[in-house]
Structures are given as C-alpha cells and as structure tokens.
Amino acid sequence: MSQSPSTDTSANGTSTERKGLECEVAVIRAPIDIEALNRGAVHPACGAVLTFSGTVRNHHLGRPVVRLAYEAYEGMAEAEMRRVAAGVAEKWPDVRRVQVVHRFGEMDVGASSIYITVSAPHRPEGFEALRYVIDRIKRDVPIWKKEFYRDGESEWLHPEEGCCRNHLHLEDSEASSAPPKN
C-alpha cells in the first residue's frame, strides 16, 4: 500500500490527499500486512503513530467462536471507508496520515480483520481521530459479519451489535473526545 497521495487504484486501495491529510484505504481478502502498514504510517511531521487492530475473538455473548466471515459490496465499503478516513481532516486538521485496511472472507480466531493507523503531531488528536475512524466504520460502512460457533451453528450479526451489553457506540465516543467546554 505504499502509494503516492494522488494514486488511485480503486480495486486494491485508494490514496488521496485532502487538506494535507494522506488517506490510504484498501479492501483485501488476504491476511493484512501489519508490518508494511506500520512502516507506511511514519510521517516526518508526526510524533505520534497510533494503531488499531481488530482481531477475531474466541467468544461472543458467552458462545465459543471458532471463526468468522466479513462480507460486503467491496466497492461501496471501500468508498465509505475512504469517506470516513478523509473526514478526519475536518475534525483534526493536524493529522497527516490515515491508513485503513479491512479484510473480507473467513478468518480464524486471532486474525486481524481491520487495521488502522493514524499519524499525528501529538497523541491527543491521534487517539481521538483513531477512535473516530473505527467507530464511524462500525456504524456507517455496510459490512456483514457471520460468526461460526464451536457447536456447529452460525449466525449473521447486525452491524451495530456489539460484543457485550455495554458496547461503545459513536455517540459515546464523540462525547468523550469532545474538547472541554469553557
């Protein structure tokens, strides 16, 4: 995914530049190359590189999970993730680089299904931007998740279903990352 900011390779990822922000987004079916993303996240103007790896966990609401599958209309999912990533520039203009890779297809427990990097001059805006990106993707991008359980059953989950009763939603995230009121 090492592309120049103006390169557009829509089938395998897109890199665009908006207001000084470099965004790279990709939808893939192979394992995510985390090391390459980490190398690509480094930006000379940034002292904070933050990462998020969403991994397949071994349970959901008390049921043992053996694997899961993510599916989507990949072109639409990629376009929506690109929109979310580019939206960082409006909220955090100092953030310089955002990379998002989402894997689709079946994955075993422990596999990374989504990997996000944010490069910012300082950590506060980097953490806020990272949380914004993952929460917006979970809320806005049309992705379907199917869980396969140890007992042989499987089920498709609603995109907004969390892992537990107190699962964080975007509104909670935006409230906690809002600047303090004077």
TrEMBL record:
Its EC number is 2.8.1.12. Coiled coil: none annotated. This is Molybdopterin synthase catalytic subunit. The keyword Phosphoprotein does not apply. Heterotetramer of 2 MoaD subunits and 2 MoaE subunits. Also stable as homodimer. The enzyme changes between these two forms during catalysis. Keywords: Molybdenum cofactor biosynthesis. It comes from the Bacteria. The keyword Acyltransferase does not apply. Pfam families: MoaE. Pathway: Cofactor biosynthesis; molybdopterin biosynthesis. SUPFAM superfamilies: Molybdopterin synthase subunit MoaE. Belongs to the MoaE family. It is an enzyme of class 2 (transferase). It catalyses: 2 [molybdopterin-synthase sulfur-carrier protein]-C-terminal-Gly-aminoethanethioate + cyclic pyranopterin phosphate + H2O = molybdopterin + 2 [molybdopterin-synthase sulfur-carrier protein]-C-terminal Gly-Gly + 2 H(+). GO terms for biological process: Mo-molybdopterin cofactor biosynthetic process. GO terms for molecular function: molybdopterin synthase activity.
